[in-house]
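pasting Class I SAM-dependent methyltransferase for the record, 211 residues
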Amino acid sequence: MTKGGVPVGIYRDHILPRLVDRTCGLAALEPHRRRACAGLDGEVVEVGFGSGLNVPFYPRTVTRVRAVEPADLAWRLAADRVAASAVPVERAGPDGQRLPFADEALDSALVTWSLCTIPDPVAALAEVRRVLRPGGALHFLEHGLAPDEAVRRWQHRLEPLQKRLAGGCHLTREPAVMLEAAGFTLGEVEHFYQPEAPRPMGALSLGVARA
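structre below
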């Protein structure tokens, strides 16, 4: 199979991680990343670590980050950020649906712009809940189903193309609904549009859920 004349494996493994690094690394997104990371503490699992775009925003209260990331190229792209980090960061595995940690082993969790592509996001969130201590916080910043019906209609139209071009990225998932389905207790969730982004791709949810 090919994607735009490029074999799917090459696109997925060698092109897509660079595209994600560029598009998700825009300066306009940095304030949202900073807010998502605020309040993290202790030993943190970050699911969908990518190229380490959250690393500069880890607070001093974090003692170590266990990075879960399937793409080898994304991990290599993160090398300079990891090396410059005041917080120790280590790669802990490739699959958010099967975390290599004991029950209640970690203090906090972080997931940003990742639930859209995980094949079974509720299973992944249930895994995160399993490895968090009771009351541990999951900080999330995700895009998904928009609050406005007109935008939702466009999301449903565009989603098949989005999934093909962006590594299985869904536009119509609902982060808050998935968190509750995985057993988390939601705190306040902020829903807003990223001003610089097209609304079907820029409907964001930011908040904290408790295990």
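The helical segments are 8-23, 30-37, 72-77, 79-84, 121-131, 149-165, 175-181.
The chain is about 35% helix and 25% strand.
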